[in-house]
Amino acid sequence: GDNVRTSIIDKDGKIFETNCSYSSHQPKKVADYKGLTTEYTYDYELEGSTAATIYGNIVSKKVYPNNSTSNRITEEYSYDPTSGLVTKKIDERGHETTYSYTDSEFLTKSVKYPNDLSYGYSYHEKSGYVTTITADNATTDTPSDDIKHSFAYTEGYLTKATHNNFDYLFSYDE
Fold it and tell me: 165: how many CB neighbours lie within 10 A of its CB?
């Protein structure tokens, strides 16, 4: 692997160093001047991996505060095998966020957060601009908990955003 050390010297002569080791042109371990060490694992490194290239997706990120091996913070990621887009993220507390995408352009279709709040996205069929974002609080069955944002565009410029029945209008200088 390759190792890179970056040093910055401030006006008082204090040196701040960051060390990074690489494998297959991707960062594997980064130790910064604040005492954080971050380690990355990629999907091509996993046993039985079918990753097509050595340039893979991050499947886990571990952060060790103060160069300690205890008290680490871990995030994990899962990906769609066809598109390579993230489908799930598990944060340091074990909370899961899931993502789904449209079939054709791979635009975000929905995001579901750990608190059961889901956002759905719809797009203009030709431009691909977001036209609505709907938040649905799945913990209740009342439609009043749904939040809808809508957007209108003229010649590629956002001209109107609606949120909670309030319209926000935009104009632009030429």
Answer: 6
Closest Cα partner for 61 from 70, 72, 51?
72
List C-alpha distances in Å: 163 to 42, 132, 167, 173: 40, 10, 7, 24
pLDDT tens for the chain, residues 1 to 174: 588 888 999 999 998 999 999 887 788 899 988 888 899 988 877 766 665 555 678 889 988 887 666 677 889 999 887 788 889 999 988 899 999 988 777 788 999 988 888 889 998 888 889 999 988 764 445 444 567 899 999 988 999 999 888 999 999 987
Identify the three-state secondary structure at position 174. coil
Helix (H, G, I), strand (E, B) or coil at 43: helix
| CA-atom Rg of the chain in angstroms | 22
Question: Which one, of 95, 59, 92, 62, lies nearest residue 76 by Cα?
Answer: 59
* Phi, psi angle pair for 45, to nearest 5°: -85, -15
In this prediction the pTM is 0.67
As given in the structure block, the two tokens for residue 145 are: 């908990």
Amino acid (one-letter) located at 29? K
